[in-house]
Design goal:
single chain; Undecaprenyl pyrophosphate synthetase; six-stranded parallel sheet; about 15% strand; binds 3-methylbut-3-enyl trihydrogen diphosphate; binds magnesium ion
Length: about 250
Amino acid sequence: MSTEEFANLPRHVAIIMDGNGRWAKKRFLPRYAGHPAGVESVRQAVQLCTDLGIEVLTLFAFSSENWRRPQQEVGLLMELFIKVLDQEAEKLHRRNVRLKIIGDRSAFSSKLQDYITRSEALTKNNTGLQLIIAANYGGRWDIVQATQKLAVQVQKGLLNPQDITSEHLNQMTSLADVPEPDLFIRTGGEQRISNFLLWQLAYTEFYFTDTLWPDFKRDAFKLALNSFASRQRRFGQTGEQVEKSK
Ligand code: IPE
Ligand code: IPE
Ligand code: MG
């Protein structure tokens, strides 16, 4: 266990792990070499969250738009995904981590789908960190599939359209059973959401860093947590109201 202490820890951290390709190019390596290099940063992020007792870590691993990349890179990413699940699922299980994959997995090979199902089943009763991997995930897809589920309920006569609340919609999204992200981190210098968690980031604190994902190790993550700790979350209220209610 770590003895590090942070005031105001987030319950849920969501990360866009960006900059692998540029990390590799800086070293005159093929872009693809950046992806396996980023796996160590994933390990360190999981370890830090476990040490600090952060409840949920959501990582964007592959977006619904990433299919547009060169076929070779997509193929190598799928292979890496299988390899990492194969090598890490057991270790995560020993650390009491519960693994969940969100996104449209129907587009994946049956081999990858099997690995996903098995890793989730292995870790499903664990009570430590919830590690959520977004793969073939898109924020718009999530809202659309949630809407489709609500429409079915309406069609069946279980719900009146005028009674639909944001809570109903939230319950149908991929992150229905976890608290909303408190802290969003994007590495790699870009300042955009790239169709990540559109619905769930409504009141999340944003943190952007130029550090490329394979360089985003424990200390870099701690800087993000320090930044989060120094912010005042107002949720529409005034700063004075927030101070008073402490
Ligand atoms: C993020 O790194 C990983 C994935 C999108 C799979 P990139 O591959 O996007 O790296 P850059 O942005 O090209 O440097
Ligand atoms: C977002 O990164 C997706 C992941 C990190 C998995 P991208 O590198 O695909 O984002 P854009 O295309 O630059 O916005
Ligand atoms: Mg990128």
